[in-house]
Structures are given as C-alpha cells and as structure tokens.
Amino acid sequence: MDACDGGDGTPRPGSVPSSRRSSAARCSRAWASLAELVRTGVPLVEALRITGPTVSGVFGGSLRTELENAANSIERGSTLADALTDHVWFDAECRRLISIGENAGELSEVLQRLADRAHRAATRAVDRLASMLEPAVILVLATLIGVVVMGAVLPIIKLQEIIA
Hints:
Elements: H1 18-39, H2 44-51, H3 60-75, H4 80-83, H5 92-104, H6 107-163
Helix pairs in contact: 1-2, 1-6, 2-3, 5-6
C-alpha cells in the first residue's frame, strides 16, 4: 500500500480508481512543498498554511481543508501525525512515518520520502491506466479505419454492379 493512497489500498482487480490516482498526485505535491518549507526553516503551522492553497484540482479543496485543520490542531498543541485525521488523504502508515520523523527530528526528510513514494504511486497508476486504454484505443481506431475503407469500397462495388 502506498502512503496517502486513500482507502484501504485494495482496489478492484484490474482497476485504477481515479480518486486514488489524483490523491497520490496531490499528496506528492503537498508533501514536497511541505518538506521544502520545513527544510528551509519555516514553522510547521505556517508551512501547512502556505501549502494548503497550492493544492489544486476538483478534490483539492478537501486536502486544502485538511491541511488548514491540521495547522489549527497543531496550534492547539497536537503533533502533525495526530493532526492529520482524514483517512482518505492520510493512511495509518503515512501518519506513523510522520510520527517517527517528528520524534527523530527529521520531519523534512520523511515528508520528502512520502512525496517521492506518492509520486511513484501516481506514476504507476497512470502507467497502468495507459496500458489498459491502449487496446481500447486500437480497437476504436481499427473500427474507424474499417468504416472509412467500407465507405470507399462500397460505392466502387455498387458502380461495378451497375455497369455489369
């Protein structure tokens, strides 16, 4: 299971849920931004508030809200791992790794590793989707070519029948 993959990590056989693809890509960008900000010395609460508005897309609003809620929770004394409560965006493994990074004082490194993992997960999901779509595209193109050929050949055959 990939960090931040959403859900329980068990998709239907042969399927690549779009929510999982998009959540992995959004998490990747969010973790990378957060890691860079923390690495450069920006306080975690401010880093979360800066990263939130940079998340885009149809479902980006829920991640943006979750990051803002995490910033508010950290201001009240919670840790980042405890503040990330949304199981759609942040699975248990993700929160455990963040907790370990916080305790070890290497949060930026852990966030960067999470970003790398989420990026790889998104890339794999897109590759799987492309490999599933290739045969369908080939069939559609073959059908279109067949229609064009039949459209060109049938009038010639009809013309031959009329002449003969």
